[in-house]
Amino acid sequence: MTIRLLLADDHPVVRAGLRAVLDTEPDFAVVAEAATAERAVELAAAGDVDVVLMDLQFGPGMHGSEATAAITAVPGGPKVLVLTTYDTDADILAAVEAGASGYLLKDAPRRSWRRRSGRRRPASRRSPRRWRTG
Q: CATH homologous superfamily for 3-119?
């Protein structure tokens, strides 16, 4: 089963780097990219996405936690895994409270990505998690 990913980050170089790494993994397919949180919400609502890799800080406009809440409010919608450089409880807690399934620091080792973005469990056995590497 291929996991369909949406990359949501306001930095083109970050999206390109993530795509380059994830394209080498046979179980992942990057199917969309969003430069704004608003666009991430639109693309997630369109379907064809299993997991959104969401940055927290975008430029002006919607914050990543707000987008996470909008995406996860839709029954049967994609899961959100927050990608961040911010390792503070306030930032992470806001994202998890908004519905993120977990988080991953952008400087995490490559092997962590596969574990954190892996196959989804049945909804009845799923619970929010806070993943941390390091």
A: Response regulator (3.40.50.2300)
